[in-house]
What we know:
Helices cover 41% and strands 18% of the residues. The protein is α/β, with parallel strands linked by helices. Among the domains are: 10-44 and 158-184; 48-148, CATH 2.40.50.140; 258-286 and 304-427, P-loop containing nucleotide triphosphate hydrolases (Rossmann fold), CATH 3.40.50; 459-617, 3-Layer(aba) Sandwich (Rossmann fold). The strands form 4 sheets. It has a 7-stranded mixed sheet with strand order 6-7-4-3-2-5-8. A 7-stranded parallel sheet has the order 12-13-11-14-15-10-16, with helices on both faces. It has a 6-stranded parallel sheet with strand order 17-22-21-18-20-19, with helices on both faces. α20 (576-583) links the parallel β21 and β22 (594-599). Residues 694-701 have low confidence and may be disordered. Bound molecules: adenosine-5'-diphosphate and magnesium ion. Residues 305-306, 400, 428, 557 line the site of magnesium ion. GO terms for molecular function: DNA helicase activity; hydrolase activity.
Amino acid sequence: MADLSLITPIEYLKGVGPQKADVIKKELQIFTIGDLLSYYPFRYIDRTVFHKIRQLDADMYSAQVLGRLIGLKEVGEKRAKRLVGQFKDETGSIELVWFQSITWLQKSLKVGSAYVLYGKPSVFNGQISITHPEMEPYQAQVKNLGNMTLQPVYSSTEKLKKFNLDSKGIQKLQQTALETVFRQLTEQLPAYLLAKHQLMDQARATVAIHFPQSQEELTQAIKRIKFEELFYIQLKLLKNKQLNTKKFRGQIFSKVGDKFNTFFKERIPFPLTNAQKRVVKEIRQDTVTGAQMNRLVQGDVGSGKTVVALLTMLLAIDNGFQACMMAPTEILATQHYTGLKELLGEDICNIKLLTGSTSTKQRRIIHEELENGSLDILIGTHALIEDKVKFKNLGFVVIDEQHRFGVEQRAKLWRKNSIPPHMLVMTATPIPRTLAMTMYGDLDISVIDELPAGRKPIKTVHFFESSRLRMFGLIREEIAKGRQVYVVFPLIKESEKLDLLYLEAGLENIQREFPLPEFKISIVHGKMPVKDKDFEMQRFVKHETQIMVATTVIEVGVNVPNASVMIIENSERFGLSQLHQLRGRVGRGAEQSFCILMSSNKLSKEGKLRLNTMVRTNDGFEIAEVDLELRGPGDISGTQQSGVLELKLANLATDQQLLSEARNSVIDIFKEDPEMTEERHASLRQYLARKTDGIAWDKIS
Ligand code: ADP
Ligand code: MG
């Protein structure tokens, strides 16, 4: 057995073999002995705690009772056949029920004997009972208690159970694995880090997570393993960043020129907020270092990211480069285009729009101007990344609403210039700091954490169906004041037909309440041809209509400062970040704005928490924290590429402190020993060499 190691395929472990190995691979994605050892229990049963029968209730996850079996009989016929036992202690008695292994149980269980019973209490006919409890004779149990206080529980599947790999069976494999490879569990983290963060060593932690001797030992083992997971992700991310900085020479924007100055001194209609100034400065500093910038700007809806992007694009143009800005939808790209032209005026630079519906003739002009360098700024959708689109000298790329674009698309923009352009990624979905550090650990992060002055916080209320008339009343009042209103219906991908039904029924309802000619309504949904959509949008933008009934297509970026009411129908069906995005469509002007969350009376616990969170706060970062706790990082878009999902134990919502410690340790290492040549970092250097071998760096940004 001496030649087995952590990377030995699982079938060579004693007691596994090819057949079992197949099932283990398929069901658990465990391929090696090392994989098995990092398949951790998902909970532990505390075998030191005993319950009295009187304490049992159906809410308990599990219970352990010491008592006596006082009766056992078979009841029912054929498929309804079952074995029913009576079990009692000094506080009462309960029924035990078995549907399987009846003959065997009748032979092995002894009426009158003492047992330690373990199982999940449930209610049947108003009585507490336990189905399929585990029964251990009292004497045997006592002997076991000495060496096993916390019993690990591994999740298993029906298929695995057919191969005797229920939780207990997996535990047995873990035991074999540990006995086989224990000596090879050598420490990989530098000793000084273990000392500094008071971490248990690797071998001990691996044993303790599977066979904890005490709660304290388990806590220490978990801490060690979580730290390690977070540490290695950070190590990889910061290594990428280091390599990028070295590998990619960046354009140098050495001067601030006429275009920037003209706009900044003469045209800009408002003073920048301090946060905006800070971010512009951060970008400016990045663009003079000679290395390529990769920066993420996080800012809540309405925090004014667009003008920051504009200022920095002007900087690029002043230094002889072209710039482009990519948005995820045609509506948004068009709006950026009109918005920027309005801000800039006609004379500062040549700016054009390229989307799927740009005419062939216009396209030809754009291609030509791009290649001869006379086009300064190109705004567009993903049409920008097509190979036909060639720039003379692309120096600066802005990507708005980042999470809708994949890494691959970002990389394509990089390659549009021999020296890659600086990249500015803007996202309006605030991400908790911990998640940002992990998802975008290789980007620099700027935060616009301040809204322009004079904005009144949006008032948010949650109405049930019974308050529908009050909701209509508010719409009427606001329209009378000259404001405009959004009414949004959910869009559920699985059933587009149903979505339209909702929308149509809702629309009829609203048309009845707000009839022509006094009221005019725009309607926008995803199934409409782009032209019609734009037409309807434009009517609303120009205030020819007062109400916009829409599905979530208006979620991103739409800017109509005169709109002051956002009604969200069936709001319980939306996720938190979506609700927050939608709400951000109002509150953009100086007027008091409102958001009304309509919902049915039937709310799940989570649904209620989401709506309450919306009512309680306008702070996108706070909302993002709750969202992360509710959904976990796996459901938050963009995480797939980030390594977050490699986390087995660490939890980004609850382990923020540990994550900071891990990240700071990595930052220190890159500061003190950037190439990891010191002896104390030898194992990390080897780790990175293994992990980064053969990676195509241009695919990673
Ligand atoms: P977002 O960050 O959501 O993209 P925008 O850039 O669309 O926000 O800005 C929202 C609105 O706020 C726009 O109408 C914009 O002109 C305005 N705005 C941006 N910065 C300021 C500022 N410093 N003071 C006042 N209004 C501002
Ligand atoms: Mg925006």
